[in-house]
Write a structure and sequence with these properties.
This protein is α/β, with parallel strands linked by helices. Helix content is 16%, strand content 29%.
Length: 165
């Protein structure tokens, strides 16, 4: 079965001589083709995503990436997925969760929001049609260096946990 990887991975003859002058047989070729198809099914056809390599993509998972915003109103964007949005403006600010129709974050997405050390209190709100639930119905950060997390539970439904006031 042809893969979506480079065509050179699918163009095997039934047998040929490899680099060390050994004959490669059809069974080996079929096994290799099957392995490529299984890898493709597991990782997709572009496993490196927006990164320079698969290794670079995996390295990103090991560290929290920060997105600093020096504004008083910020709407989350697709690239905020799995990041920590740090609001650094001295004035109070608002972070808005967009509708799924605008930014289709996958269910299970986690986004961290951090109030900077000298920043004003942050209010977390949903765009019209977005529901955010918090155990005490408190949607503002407690104070400087407060962290909260948004977790997408379903289409346009999020939970908010962390240092809220």
């Amino acid at each position: 079965m042809p893969s979506s990887y480079p065509v050179t991975l699918d163009n095997f003859s039934t047998s040929h001589v490899d680099n060390v002058n050994e004959t490669v047989h059809a069974l080996d070729i079929n096994n290799n083709a099957d392995a490529v198809n299984h890898i493709e099914a597991e990782l997709g056809t572009l496993p490196k995503g927006i990164y320079s390599s698969v290794a670079a993509r995996l390295a990103q998972l090991e560290f929290v990436q920060f997105n600093s915003q020096n504004v008083t109103a910020y709407t989350l964007v697709a690239s905020d997925q799995s990041k920590c949005v740090t609001m650094i403006n001295a004035s109070p600010s608002t972070v808005t969760v967009p509708l799924n129709a605008s930014v289709p974050f996958p269910i299970g997405t986690v986004i961290c929001i951090r109030q900077g050390t000298t920043a004003g209190q942050i209010t977390i709100q949903g765009a019209t049609g977005v529901t955010i639930k918090e155990v005490n119905n408190s949607f503002q950060t407690q104070g400087p260096v407060a962290y909260v997390w948004l977790i997408k539970q379903n289409t346009d439904f999020w939970d908010l946990i962390g240092a809220t006031a």
